[in-house]
Automatic annotation (TrEMBL):
Stated name of the protein: Facilitated trehalose transporter Tret1
This protein's record includes keyword Transmembrane: yes
PROSITE patterns for this protein: MFS, SUGAR_TRANSPORT_1, SUGAR_TRANSPORT_2
Organism: Nephila pilipes (Giant wood spider)
Cellular localization per UniProt: Cell membrane
Keywords attached to this entry: Cell membrane, Glycoprotein, Membrane, Transmembrane, Transmembrane helix, Transport
Transmembrane segments: 103-125, 145-167, 174-194, 200-222, 229-251, 257-276, 341-364, 379-398, 405-427, 439-464, 476-496, 508-527
Family classification: Belongs to the major facilitator superfamily. Sugar transporter (TC 2.A.1.1) family. Trehalose transporter subfamily.
The keyword Glycoprotein belongs to this UniProt entry's keyword annotation: yes
Protein encoded by which gene: Tret1
Lineage: Eukaryota, Metazoa, Ecdysozoa, Arthropoda, Chelicerata
An example molecular function term from Gene Ontology annotations: sugar transmembrane transporter activity
């Protein structure tokens, strides 16, 4: 390899002179007679005005008068120079793997907060069952149980609204780390509660913290990720929330409700300590005019081989293109602002009005009321496992299939599953004996529904809200969308029982299926595909279309 490098240097030196004979001599010296015969040689033909260098790979015509300014024998030099590039390939691959590894490690650390959110969201389902046992010092009635579950959504509504402010003022990382203080306090209220009132307070506080997590975490993931893996990392938020759900289900079978609350506080502390050495979002740092820190963050995440300065320039241009000062209401009149804002709300609306949280919160009761042959608790475990697997698949497909394709598939499959489940429920009320032969239908329908939700409408809305919104408005839009999402959660979970009594089970399922069908229309006609695009490219979709002159 060293000999090739030496040959390249000598050939460059020879070709830089005006002496054709020196080049000819060196070519004959470097290439053996057999090599020249094999390649049909490198022949140099000299005319009065021009020189032609012919090679099996290419022909180069150059002016003898400009020999010193132009590259001579480019085809020969490039052919030999390929060996230099080949030699460095292994090192480049290893460097790239090392660099990308840091970005994934950072993403895994911040996703610990998503696990904490999953633990908090489903804590009540397991804890309230344990509270009904004789050893518990608190025995809530059925109405208090519903409030223990739903007050978390009330707290998350407040936290989601405040999340935009905190992520903009403290930074994405700063908001998550400082959020741990009230998170732990809230869990301690629950763990050491002497009355249901203290549990209510703890649930509101931990819900508030979940609201901030649901704003800051997807935002951070989108802003540290390169475009080629942005979908994977963004979709991982929902995956880790579901992992948290699965964790609390298993822990709940081993721990009392008080120790389960302590484990929630410990999980949040672990996430915060791991997050401290991680970098702040480069985009937020650039928005705060902390260029040096932003550059260091990019180098940490993507490695020294990545052009951090060029990345900073791109961010700077994006930020400078946005109006200065605090966000004003009239700025939302711009199509590039109000359109993604409305679509963000629509995505959150369809995510919740698919009925997913009603299904998840009342899975055991749904199976019980459907008189399925499967044990309700066992069915709940199966549904949770399916949710984890489907969300993992979604994370892997997000940057391949695209956001719109997954949303369309998700909405269609959810609608079909709910329609069939509703038909089964109606048939069961008319002919109860149908359960004897078709008791497996509820399980298949609910597993299909959860799998479809987890593939599309589970992770994608969180990702697309951050992707579609300009950096300047991202905190506000994400905060409002998240707050509305939790509002929808509260409405769905509190109204399900009343709706079931008024419309019967099949009526409720068909109503949810209608919302799923409506989501297909909105997704297909109004939603942009954001896969592999930067913010400017995405915002072009929302620009008013100019009519072409005929």
């Amino acid at each position: 390899m060293e000999e090739i490098h030496r040959d390249v240097k000598k050939l460059r030196s020879a070709s830089a002179t005006s002496s054709t004979s020196s080049v000819t001599e060196y070519v004959n010296e470097v290439f053996t007679e057999s090599e020249l015969e094999l390649s049909r040689g490198v022949s140099i033909h000299v005319t009065e005005d021009t020189q032609y260098v012919k090679n099996p790979l290419s022909n180069i015509l150059y002016d003898e008068k400009e020999t010193k300014e132009k590259k001579n024998l480019d085809n020969v030099v490039d052919f030999m120079h390929d060996s230099e590039e080949f030699e460095s390939t292994d090192n480049s691959i290893l460097t790239g793997v090392k660099n990308i590894r840091k970005m994934y490690i950072t993403a895994l650390v911040v996703l610990m907060f998503a696990i904490c959110m999953g633990i908090t969201a489903t804590y009540s389902a397991t804890a309230t069952m344990d509270m009904k046992k004789p050893h518990s010092s608190i025995h809530p009635d059925s109405d208090q149980v519903t409030w223990i579950g739903s007050l978390m959504a009330v707290g998350a509504l407040i936290g989601g609204t405040a999340g935009g402010y905190f992520t903009n003022s403290l930074g994405r990382k700063g908001a998550l780390v400082l959020n741990t203080v009230p998170f732990v306090v809230g869990w301690m209220f629950v763990a050491y509660a002497s009355s249901t009132g203290m549990i209510y307070l703890g649930r509101v506080v931990t819900g508030f913290c979940c609201g901030i997590i649901s704003v800051a975490t997807p935002m951070y993931l989108v802003e540290i990720a390169t475009p080629d893996v942005r979908g994977l990392l963004g979709a991982s938020f929902q995956l880790f929330v579901v992992i948290g759900v699965l964790i609390v289900s298993f822990l709940g079978s081993q721990l009392t409700w008080r120790y389960l609350a302590v484990s929630g506080g410990v999980a949040s502390l672990v996430a915060a300590f791991l997050m401290i050495p991680m970098p702040e979002s480069p985009k937020w740092l650039m928005a705060q005019k902390r260029r040096g820190e932003a550059k260091n963050a990019i180098i940490f995440l993507q490695g020294k081989s990545h052009d951090a300065e060029d990345e900073c320039l791109k961010m700077e241009e994006e930020i400078q293109s946005q109006p200065k000062g605090s966000v004003q209401f009239q700025e939302f009149k711009a199509p590039t602002i109000y359109k993604p804002f409305i679509l963000s709300i629509m995505l959150m609306f369809f995510q919740q009005f698919s009925g997913v949280n009603a299904v998840l919160f009342y899975t055991a009761e749904i199976f019980k009321s459907a008189h399925s042959s499967l044990d309700p608790i066992e069915a709940t475990i199966y549904v949770s496992i399916v949710q984890v697997i489907a969300t993992l698949i979604s994370s892997l497909l997000m940057d391949k299939a695209g956001r719109k394709a997954l949303l369309l598939f998700s909405g269609a499959c959810m609608a079909i599953s709910l329609i069939i489940f509703g038909a089964f429920d109606l048939a069961r009320t008319q002919n109860p004996s149908i359960v004897d032969n078709y008791g497996w239908v509820p399980l298949v329908c609910l597993m299909s529904f959860i799998a479809a939700f987890s593939l599309g409408f589970g992770p994608t809305p969180w990702l697309m809200v951050a992707e579609m919104t300009p950096v300047r408005f991202r905190g506000i839009v994400s905060g409002i969308a998240t707050a509305l999402n939790w509002t929808f959660v509260f409405i769905i979970t509190k109204s399900f029982k009343a709706e079931e009594e008024a419309m019967h089970g099949y009526g409720v399922y068909w109503m949810y299926s209608a919302f799923c069908i409506a989501s297909l229309f909105i997704t297909y006609f109004f939603l942009p595909e954001t896969k592999g695009k930067n913010v400017d490219e995405i915002l072009e979709f929302f620009e008013p279309k100019k009519l072409e002159k005929s």
